[in-house]
User: Fold this.
Amino acid sequence: EPEVTQTPSHQVTQMGQEVILRCVPISNHLYFYWYRQILGQKVEFLVSFYNNEISEKSEIFDDQFSVERPDGSNFTLKIRSTKLEDSAMYFCASSVGFSSYNEQFFGPGTRLTVL
Amino acid sequence: ELKVEQNPLFLSMQEGKNYTIYCNYSTTSDRLYWYRQDPGKSLESLFVLLSNGAVKQEGRLMASLDTKARLSTLHITAAVHDLSATYFCAAPTGNTPLVFGKGTRLSVIA
Assistant:
């Protein structure tokens, strides 16, 4: 069964460093998302992406964040200058169509630890 | 702005007992999702409720949706230890693909 994959599973970085989290969405899906979950808290929407551009973003997704689909399969989240409070689990998701009408499928997550 | 409220946030159940988790949402949404999350793991889709009155069952779990009351329930029948996990409900809005509740941490004890 097709699934969303994410790499790395765990990333440790120093504050101020740049990190890139990678995702491979399900191949026939057209909408891609990033969510984050700070330890013990709820899952929060960051950004959605369709047709090579951001379609929605939350207040959390500020100028230090960016997303890209560099090729036909990968979808990346870049955090330019990491802060301690960026430590969280980051989930990628994809859906075949627009999110309100189509189920999103989540990847296994990348645990980001900022020291 | 859509708000999704779950209760209870923590639930300790004895094996064999029944219980219901409630999910209220604040604005109109015609569908509702339930996810299960084990510690340190991803979100596993449990139910997709697509219309008012929808009811779905899988094993000991049954979910329902009342869009008029803006309420979804997740009913657990005869709990077993394997059901211990955190359960999230989530609803889509026009501007935000999914708004999640805070989750209900379920612990089933012998």
About this structure: The CA atoms of residues 2 and 96 of chain B lie 9 Å apart.
